[in-house]
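> call design_seq(struct)
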C-alpha cells in the first residue's frame, strides 16, 4: 500500500528513453582529482532497439577541459550493450540495483526513476586501481 498522494512506482520501458536528454555527471574518486561531465545524451531508434550516444565536455580538476563521448545499445527488456556488442547490464525497470564485473573491476549501479522524467544513475566502481562514485543526472532536453 502506498501513502496518500504517493503514486505506485512505474516500470520504465525502452520507449520511455527515446529522444534527447541533458546529462550532468559528477565523478568523485577516493583519491585524486574530481571531475564532472556536461553534455547531451540521445536515444535513437534503431530497429527494435535504441542507440545511445552521449557527447559533451569532461572537466577534471587541474586539467584542461576535453571532449568526451560514449555509445551503447539498449534493447527491449532494458538490456544495455557496449558498442562492440558485449553485454553490460540490465536496467531495473522500476529503478534499483544492477552490476557488471569487468575483471578485475566491479561496477555497481543504482537507478532512481522516482522523479521521472528526470532520473539518476549512480555508479560505484571498485578495483585494484579504481575507486570512485559517478553520479549521472538525466533530464529531457527543453526542461
Amino acid at each position: 500500500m502506498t501513502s496518500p498522494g504517493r503514486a505506485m512506482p512505474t516500470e520504465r520501458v525502452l520507449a520511455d528513453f527515446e529522444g534527447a536528454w541533458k546529462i550532468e555527471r559528477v565523478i568523485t574518486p577516493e583519491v585524486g582529482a574530481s571531475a564532472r561531465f556536461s553534455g547531451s545524451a540521445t536515444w535513437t531508434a534503431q530497429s527494435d532497439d535504441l542507440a545511445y550516444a552521449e557527447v559533451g565536455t569532461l572537466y577534471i580538476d587541474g586539467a584542461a577541459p576535453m571532449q568526451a563521448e560514449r555509445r551503447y545499445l539498449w534493447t527491449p527488456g532494458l538490456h544495455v550493450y557496449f558498442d562492440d556488442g558485449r553485454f553490460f547490464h540490465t536496467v531495473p525497470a522500476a529503478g534499483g540495483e544492477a552490476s557488471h564485473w569487468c575483471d578485475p573491476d566491479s561496477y555497481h549501479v543504482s537507478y532512481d526513476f522516482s522523479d521521472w522524467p528526470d532520473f539518476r544513475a549512480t555508479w560505484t566502481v571498485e578495483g585494484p586501481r579504481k575507486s570512485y562514485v559517478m553520479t549521472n543526472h538525466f533530464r529531457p532536453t527543453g526542461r
